[in-house]
Amino acid sequence: MDNDKLDVEQLLRAAGAIKQGHFLLTSGLHSSRYLEKFQVLQYPHYTDLLCGAIAAHFKDEGVSVVAGPTMGGVLLAYATARALGGEVRGIFAERASGDELAKMGERVFRRGFVINPGERVLIVDDILTTGLSLREILAAVERLEGEIVGIGVMVDRSQGRANFGYPLYALAQLDIPTWRADECPMCRDGVPLVKPGSSLAKTA
After folding, report:
1. Residue 60: which CATH number?
2. pTM of the entire predicted model
């Protein structure tokens, strides 16, 4: 699947993944638009199209393992590994806690998942904004001495600011405006603020 033949923004709209409103992002910034990735990932057909395009881009890289961060990266890693075929595995890294956090960093591979030194690893994620979750999983793979061949994401909304030191491939780039709370025009206009994923979040 060639990204040139896949209209990712149209697909996201068809799935109802692009929301309009006044949103509090995990970064603390405010935005008038929000990408609810699970609205598109709930459809296996859409997920297969997206992950098939990522797999096609990296098909000649000799990938042994596809790794993603929880939550959305779980589905993406599985579907991308399946699209690559053969014995490629799809695994995910979870947030560390307690002593584990102190010893290993922000994300760790549990559940018996293994990356052997020198294994060629493709990192996948859904929405790239600040790149924090990607940096955490890159560190988790590097600790295990995996050989990272690149990073594939559904949507890059970093406006080209993200630089991880590895090849980055995005199926789409969306420019979604964000503001600090004290600069937010919707706050000034008294538009109710919602946190996506909370019980207060509304569909737009």
Report:
1. 3.40.50.2020
2. 0.85
